[in-house]
């Protein structure tokens, strides 16, 4: 089969790379992709805009695509999966209705509450004044969290420790609306949880589902988890501070409940669920949010641990036959660590990004199979790559344990350089 991966970052690079290794796959394309994917793995990218669904449909026809995998949440919210499915393409990625699990925090939290999924207590408001009145009565010893209802690329969450901060953040979000949200006064206010976060992943075919691994992401820009939130500066897998009993709890109390609730609501969910979970300081596991896609950079650490054929799993899933191949899914016992190199100035809030610098790659990097380079914000100039985005690339190293994976990833980073590059030095620790 010919397969189309939709998206342009390192997550899509990792998905396309893994699919390209499958004997079931003739050709993999990425749309729009980035030139690093083609340069490194000889995977063609179709640089047109996939959110123009007429173009997308004609690309699928031209390249005889029979299966598509959708990376970013924005594409799902636009109804890309609905369009592809209507056109006979087996799709990994939920319908627009299924994607509301991520695109509306209110919808998602209500579903959690109704199905008894452990999560922080919350209230929902549609008017700024009502939310403000509520905040004024909040007991502040443990803080609170304000969340925009709509998709905000991780920027719509404000964790507040004082009343003053909460009032200022609420005003910013609802009145100034820097995120240009359609309904800026639709906000959730919830209790603040303290603990350590993990990302847990499952794939569903609408009938059955399968746990496909967990990882720990470093969302903050600076060492020691300081500075602004980013898309993710690095990651490791597995989340080795979670016990197998806790994994079982996640399967039963979170994922089973979620999928049976989706079924009850007649929501056909064919795709990946990413549960952001807090292991609270008292040991409780509570869901912070659900996403309806792979994480970035979580995909870059989980996919290299998948033994066997991901295309087979995806294909079965897209045809509601997950139960037939479930037993063939296996994760290696090895650990992976991914470190992201970003452009200087990332995430570009306080200073502009330092862009358009030549990326030098020492071929020594490719001598070991246990490390893999994935590209994101790059463009081609003459016969080399330059950095043209925030997150530029990431390297995943695989080893017998986490600490070895961390040092291998950092060693490997030495082989890829560009002017102004920025990366965290404490990923994995
Ligand atoms: P979300 O988009 O809901 O996952 O939130 C983004 C980030 O905000 C999470 O990864 C957490 O670091 C933080 N966060 C969200 N909800 C809470 C909460 N109830 N308590 C503490 N931190 C939270
Ligand atoms: N790394 C977090 C995300 O993909 O949302």
List the helices and strands and how they pair.
Layout: E1 2-7, H1 10-20, E2 27-32, H2 35-41, H3 53-62, E3 65-70, H4 73-77, H5 80-86, E4 90-92, H6 96-103, H7 105-115, E5 122-125, H8 128-136, E6 144-148, E7 157-160, H9 163-176, E8 187-191, E9 195-205, E10 209-217, E11 220-222, E12 226-229, E13 234-237, H10 244-264, E14 270-280, E15 285-291, H11 298-302, E16 306-307, H12 310-318, H13 322-325, E17 330-331, E18 335-342, E19 360-361, E20 371-375, E21 378-381, E22 384-387, E23 391-399, H14 402-413, E24 416-417
Parallel strand pairs: 1-2, 1-3, 3-4
Antiparallel strand pairs: 5-8, 6-7, 6-8, 9-10, 9-14, 10-13, 11-12, 13-18, 14-15, 16-17, 18-23, 19-24, 20-23, 21-22
Helix pairs in contact: 6-7, 8-9
Q: What attributes does this structure have?
A:
binds adenosine monophosphate, globular, Dna Ligase, domain 1, 24 strands, 8-stranded antiparallel beta sheet, 429 residues
Task: Explain what you see.
α6 (96-103) packs across α7 and α8 packs antiparallel against α9 (163-176). The protein is built from 14 helices and 24 strands. It has an eight-stranded antiparallel sheet, with helices on both faces. It has helices at residues 10-20, 35-41, 53-62, 73-77, 80-86, 96-103, 105-115, 128-136, 163-176, 244-264, 298-302, 310-318, 322-325, 402-413, and strands at residues 2-7, 27-32, 65-70, 90-92, 122-125, 144-148, 157-160, 187-191, 195-205, 209-217, 220-222, 226-229, 234-237, 270-280, 285-291, 306-307, 330-331, 335-342, 360-361, 371-375, 378-381, 384-387, 391-399, 416-417. It is globular and about 60 Å long. It folds into four domains: 2-95, Rossmann fold (3-Layer(aba) Sandwich), CATH 3.40.50; 121-191, ATP-grasp fold, A domain (Dna Ligase, domain 1); 195-331, D-amino Acid Aminotransferase, Chain A, domain 1; 335-417, Phosphoribosylglycinamide synthetase, C-terminal domain (Glycinamide Ribonucleotide Synthetase, Chain A, domain 4), CATH 3.90.600. With 429 residues, it is an alpha+beta fold. The structure holds adenosine monophosphate and glycine. Residues 120, 145, 147, 154, 157, 159, 190, 192-193, 197, 219, 276, 288-289 line the site of adenosine monophosphate.
């Amino acid at each position: 089969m010919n397969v189309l991966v939709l998206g342009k970052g390192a997550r899509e690079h990792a998905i396309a790379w893994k699919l390209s290794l499958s004997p079931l796959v003739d050709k993999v394309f990425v749309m729009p992709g980035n030139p690093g994917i083609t340069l490194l793995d000889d995977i063609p990218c179709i640089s047109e805009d996939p959110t123009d669904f007429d173009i997308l449909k004609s690309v699928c026809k031209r390249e005889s695509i029979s299966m598509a995998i959708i990376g970013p949440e924005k594409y799902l919210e636009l109804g890309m999966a609905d369009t592809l499915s209507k056109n006979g393409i087996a799709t990994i990625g939920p319908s627009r209705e299924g994607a509301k699990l991520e695109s509306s925090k209110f919808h998602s939290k209500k579903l959690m509450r109704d199905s008894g999924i452990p999560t922080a207590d919350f209230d929902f408001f549609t008017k700024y004044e009502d939310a403000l009145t509520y905040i004024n009565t909040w007991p502040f010893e443990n803080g609170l969290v304000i969340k925009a209802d709509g998709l905000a690329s991780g920027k719509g969450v404000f964790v507040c420790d004082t009343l003053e901060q909460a009032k200022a953040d609420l005003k910013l979000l609802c009145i100034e609306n820097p995120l240009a949200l359609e309904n800026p006064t639709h906000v959730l206010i919830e209790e603040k949880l303290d603990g350590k976060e993990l990302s847990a992943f499952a794939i569903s075919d609408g009938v059955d589902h399968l746990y496909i691994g967990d990882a720990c992401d470093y969302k903050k820009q600076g060492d020691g988890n300081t500075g602004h939130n980013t898309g993710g500066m690095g990651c490791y897998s597995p989340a080795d501070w979670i016990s197998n009993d806790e994994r079982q709890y996640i399967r039963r109390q979170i994922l089973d409940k979620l999928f049976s609730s989706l079924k009850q609501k007649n929501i056909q969910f064919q795709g990946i669920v990413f549960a952001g979970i807090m292991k609270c300081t008292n040991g409780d596991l509570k869901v912070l949010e659900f996403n309806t896609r792979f994480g970035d950079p979580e995909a870059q650490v989980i996919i290299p641990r998948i033994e066997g054929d991901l295309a087979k799993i995806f294909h079965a899933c897209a045809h509601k036959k997950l139960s037939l191949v479930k037993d063939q899914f296996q994760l290696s016992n090895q650990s992976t660590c991914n470190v992201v190199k970003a452009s200087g100035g990332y995430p570009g809030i306080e200073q502009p990004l330092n862009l358009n610098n030549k990326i030098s790659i020492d071929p020594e990097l490719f001598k070991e199979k246990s490390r893999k380079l994935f590209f994101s914000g790059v463009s081609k100039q003459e016969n080399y790559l330059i950095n043209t985005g925030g997150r530029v690339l990431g390297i995943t190293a695989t080893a017998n344990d986490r600490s070895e994976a961390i040092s291998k990833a950092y060693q490997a980073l030495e082989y890829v350089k560009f002017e102004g590059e920025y990366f965290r030095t404490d990923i994995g620790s």
